[in-house]
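Might you be able to review the protein record set out just below?
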Amino acid sequence: MKIWMKITIVILVILCSVNSITNATPSTIIWIPSVDFQGYKSFHLGIDNYAYDFNGGKPYSGTAFPTDLGLTVGVSPDSIVLAEIGVDYMTPQWSPFLLNAKVGVPEGALASWSPALAVGGFGFGFSKNVTDCNIFYGIAGKTFPVIGRIEAGLFSGNKNVLGPDYKGFMLSWDRMMPEISENLWLAIDYQSGKSSFGAFSYGFAWSFSKNVSVIFARDVFNADIPSTFTMQLDINI
């Protein structure tokens, strides 16, 4: 079967599946979506916690950044065309559920030199012009010897929620660090604009086992919002 026919079939599977779930966020670097995918029938449980920096000795608006409780599952049995959908519950937040889906191909799928490719969307909330950020994106990633993996992409969302910076670009670098430890991973990512999604993030992850890892990172927002420290627990089943 030709690859474009496979992509069409997987997109239809995703569209049908989205109607049966409540919410989701994609596999990410630290902050932005990545070209990584959950394997077929593999469930990813994530707990992403954020704590604001203090600004002049006072916490931002006396509030906390919502904690993200997420579930993502791989839905494509194909080894070339990959896909995932997921569910996120943001707490505390009014209208806390959001939707996500992603489809793509791994490195080398189209040609020996071809990058990994992914297209998808996230932030599909259920409160009109409040939580329906509706961010669509396309991203490509390529792994280079010694340097690590570089990813770059474009995004566009709901202007009524994100404001004038509703579209822009995303960049990232990540690398496993076997020189130090097989369990250590470093990453940097960036999303442009001064919406609530525009940020520069950097940090590291430590794998405690094959299926359990924790990311420790800092998010510095482009807008006038105090930065956050984040700890993200990832469990794969």
User: Anything to note?
Assistant: The first helix runs from residue 3 to 18. The chain has one domain: 3-236. The two ends are 30 Å apart (CA to CA).
